[in-house]
Amino acid sequence: MLRSPRTLLSVTSAALLVAGLTACGGTTKDSNTNSGSGTQASAAADPNAALKEGLKIAFLPKQLNNPYSDVETGGGKVAVGELKGEYKLVGPNDASASSQVSYINTLIQQQQDVIVVAANDPNAVCPSLNQARAAKIKVITFDSDASKDCRDAFINQATTQGIGESLAKMALEQAGSDGGEIAVLSATPNATNQNSWIEVMKKELEKPDYAKLKLVKVAYGNDDDQKSFQEAQGLLQSYPNLKVIVAPTTVGIAAAARYISSSSYKGKVAVTGLGLPNQMREYVKDNTVTKFALWNPADIGYLAAYAGAAMASGQITGAEGEKFKAGKLGEYTIGANGEIVLGPPTEFTKENIDQFNF
Amino acid sequence: MTVTSNRSAPTDAPLGNPAQKRAGNLLKTRELGIVLALAILVAYTAIDNPRFLSGQSIRDNLLNTAILAVMATGQAVVVITRNIDLSVGSVLGLSAFTVATMMSNNQDLPMIVAILAGLAVGAVAGLLNGVLVRYGKVPALVVTLGTLYIYRGITYSWAGGSQVNADELPRHFLTFANDNLLGIPWLVLIALIVVGAGSLMMRNYRVGRELYAMGSSPAAAELAGIKVARNLLGAFVLSGALAGLAGVLYAARFGTVDAAAGNGYELNVVAAVVVGGVAVFGGSGTVWGAALGALLLTVIGSALAVLDINQFWQQAIVGALIILAICADRLVAVRIGRSLRKRDAHV
Amino acid sequence: MSDTRPAWRSRLTGWDTIIAVLTVLVLIIASFSVENFGTSRNFTFMVLDLLPIILIALPMTMIIVTGEIDLSVASTLGLTSSMMGWLWNQGLSIETIIPLCVVIGAICGVVNGFLITGLGLPSLAVTIGTLALYRGLAFVVLGDGAVADFPWNYTGWVTGTIGDGAVPNVLILIVALAVIFGIVQHATPFGRSLYAIGANAQAAHFSGIRVARTKFWLYVVSGAVAGLVGVLWTLRYSSARADNGAGLELAVVAAVLLGGVSIFGGKGSLPGVLAGVVLLTALQNALRLEDVSGQALNIVTGSLLVLSVLLPNITTAVRGNWHRRKLRQAAAR
């Protein structure tokens, strides 16, 4: 023990020396050009090609035990049934990036025709997805996009602009004509979707219509029920005059509503945002929540399955402007960067919530 | 009693013996240290934001502590016997899902049935742990690491991707978490009863002293005629049952239960116990110290949110606190050892 | 703990053989009955999946043989991954960052080693503390963000194969390290001293083995290897994140114990551990290809872990009974 710190010191300094020497002329962030994207030479699209039957279409959501993903993939299952394909659902138990990679690798081994994936990390899944595309598997992302250069198309639930505007509008309605303080309870600080919606929402709030609203804080509940619950508590303790909590995530809105409904803040603080009708029904009925919004998640999975089938059949390649038919949803056109937009979100209130079951 | 080492139980140090009295005082300062740390933390946070001391905030903190404190009680007993139960997080998940499913299928079942069912599920899980440790002669760390996987796996396979939502659960079950008796929420009351009963058992009853003796020297305890097998099984059943009870409380409080409920809780529970002054090598520490540890960890979490300190610091602070706690224990142990040696020299 | 020497030796060889045979059986059965299991691409995937567990298991085996444990390894991995992303964002070259990250891992090990051998604290409690501490620091460094733009020639090397054949590049690393650790553990006086420490630390001390110093360096090596794995993990997924490798410590400990190493120290062999890691990974891979969910695997892993200690105990007990009965019969006669 006596000698060890000194030995350690020499080892450390030697290592640092080596590090220092190599520091000159190494590969740094600036010199690095990432040329690893596996762009494929895409064949020309044949819009009249028939949809193939018996396609193997696999869904890989962010994690398995998530009710929202269940509804999405449920829609996919219906579509694959209509397409007479083989439906498969796999996924990890935790929403970690690395665990998805093993599942993608397995799907490559099983020679699926289409992989429909919601990426936990836009970059961590990339090498594997490109291996899949090299093995002639079509890759459709939904819910949460992967990097543009490692997927063929992305099903966007709604335009970022549309959701941001809708969030700002609902916040104003809830705060009432006098306005007041509002706070956002989001998912994780690096959640791509949530961040871009909050950006749009902030821009909206700068407009004169929203002058009376003051955004005091963006808190993060990490899409973890308990963490979101505690963050909601923290918000109300830190901001006694808070009027509205806007939660653009299904986990966050449910946790915030549950906290408010069981606390002394009920009736004084409103909760709104994006939520699942089944999870929110109770809080809508007990008047904790009067209005929230969401697109129909089942339609996302449905559209993704049709887009994948159209691509595997050669109808589309993912280029801008190509059109394809998605069963009961009608015709869709591929936008810039291979994005396919589902449509505007639905608003849920006490009056209409019982018409929805997801 | 020469076998039951008295250093484990601070209260009964004979007044006439200065060395032992000092040893008792030293141990008292161990729990006092947590109370002090807690007081400083609360005072500092309250000065920054007085609402931290509002009724609602105190209530929230106590509610959040309740589940952890219940589990820490069982864990403390197991750790005092020089064992460990890593499966508690998975037992919580299994019990929470069992009870939530049961209640959503039978809306009219009274709350007491839910509690008993949770206790039973946990007790069975704990019994299996105990049997494997005692009769299979498999170390507790290995057994409960194994059952951590097994119990979680069972819950996952059973639940699949499904989830029990708040709207499927009966009203009385959900309101239980927020209902009060004499102004104290039921959840907190249950935790207080569990911690109180646990402390009393370990301090004032023969079985408690035997558990300390087993932790101080397993071989000596066996030779002294203590029913080691019965006590050990009892400790594991208790830990399991309390984790099961925590599962019921979890389901009632959070309303939404899936197969991942309580994932990773075992580390929080062990952390609470260690911070609360229970030595991992058994034989010393108290149940109420462990409960204080649970309270401290919870208050740190909510204080960080109120103080607007980056939440990411929380885990690092908890880690540093654990290390600080075991350093303090080591210091106390060394000093006690010295004072005991001195006493022996006089005799 | 109080077993006599020949008894544990025979038991050890017993479990070693069982686990090796089991591993080979699983590999053979899976190659024949599971579609796509035996392909070269699947082999690559499997090697990449077992890379982190097998590397961290090498020093972990030694630590557990001395009767201690290191639960902070996965958090060390996370911290180095975070630091790697942060340093990369600071504009350092990757050639500087990689050795620096190994050093960071080693420093984490130094802290563990000092607390355990210098202050004499129990390793289980210390490393549970540093498990939280290092993971917490990882989040402090990088928050919830991810750094992804690592150079292709490095990320590609980790996931690539030699000459685009069937042998993954990282396999060289695994084999090289496994050979080095195997030689040190089983063919040097240092390695033998580990068993002596695990069997009876006090006796080892009095026979001239520097117990504290040996353990200290084991923790430093464990930290350094965890740091290296942090680098490899980051490059494999081309994503530096604070939550990388969360929970891996339990998988590593499970694999080591499954390989026949006693949690009380003093017995176990590296080949057994390697077989244990391969067994777990192959089972996982085969089950996934068969569309059996990862959840079922939890049950299999847990049961194997308990059985790995329980079965030898039962056989010993049965053998002991039989022996005693024979003695009694002989005495009666």
Topology:
The complex is a heterotrimer of chains A (358), B (347) and C (333).
Chain A: H1 4-23, E1 56-60, H2 67-82, E2 86-89, H3 97-109, E3 114-117, H4 126-134, E4 138-142, E5 153-156, H5 160-175, E6 180-186, H6 192-205, E7 213-220, H7 225-238, E8 242-247, H8 250-261, E9 270-273, H9 277-285, E10 292-294, H10 297-312, E11 323-325, E12 331-333, E13 339-341, E14 346-348
Parallel strand pairs in A: 1-2, 1-3, 3-4, 4-5, 5-13, 6-7, 6-8, 8-9
Antiparallel strand pairs in A: 10-14, 11-12
Chain B: H1 18-48, H2 55-80, H3 88-105, H4 111-134, H5 140-159, E1 163-164, H6 171-175, E2 180-181, E3 184-185, H7 186-204, H8 206-216, H9 218-223, H10 228-254, E4 257-258, H11 265-275, H12 287-307, H13 313-346
Antiparallel strand pairs in B: 1-4, 2-3
Helix pairs in contact in B: 1-12, 1-13, 2-7, 2-10, 2-11, 2-12, 3-4, 3-5, 3-10, 4-5, 4-10, 7-8, 8-10, 11-12, 11-13
Chain C: H1 5-33, H2 40-65, H3 73-89, H4 94-118, H5 123-142, E1 146-147, H6 152-159, H7 169-187, H8 189-199, H9 201-206, H10 211-236, E2 240-241, H11 248-258, H12 270-289, H13 294-332
InterPro entries (chain C): ABC_transp_permease
Membrane topology (chain C): Multi-pass membrane protein
Subcellular location (chain C): Cell membrane
Question: What keyword list fits this structure?
Answer:
heterotrimer, A: 358 residues, alpha/beta, Rossmann fold, six-stranded parallel sheet, four-stranded parallel sheet, 17% strand, B: 347 residues, two-stranded antiparallel ribbon, 2% strand, globular, disordered N terminus
